[in-house]
Amino acid sequence: MNTLEEAKRQVTEDFSLYEEWLDKYEYLIELGKNLEPFPEELKTDDRLIKGCQSRVWLDCRKEGDTLYFKADSDAIITKGIISLLIGVYSGRRASEIEEDDFSFINDLGLRENLSPTRANGLASMIETIRRYAEQ
Fold it and tell me: Which residues are designated catalytic?
């Protein structure tokens, strides 16, 4: 498995392949389509991320100090965004996640190119991942 910095750099490079935001949205949609299936029995209220306009479920399994995430959403772009995040952070030590500043999201230009409600949802996704790391 690559390091956290390598994973963030890879996502940044993948995003930079596309100049137009329409293409970047298509890339996010593809990420969402490739997300591992999320079991229906895990779609519970305690796994719903608060602050998202669409419904986003995030499950976290801890093995030792390592966190493994699974997620799903009922909105395709949002599903791509959470897929991007868990692709970077799943399988990482809690301390790595806790110490990370998530600034690569700013480097992608994602916040500026999302609707305000989706940008708030992104912030809620990041906050929820951080909370799991702090527990």
Answer: 52
pTM listed for this prediction: 0.93
Beta-sheet strands, E only, within 1-135: 56-63, 66-73, 92-93
In contact, 51 and 131? CB cutoff 8 Å: no
Tokens of 106: 């700013």
Amino acid at 92: R
Q: Which positions ≥6 away from 59 have C-beta within 8 Å?
A: 38, 42, 47, 69, 70, 71
* Backbone torsions φ then ψ of 112, nearest 5 degrees: -70, -20
| Amino acid at site 49 | I
Given a cut of 50, the residues of the chain with pLDDT beneath it are: none
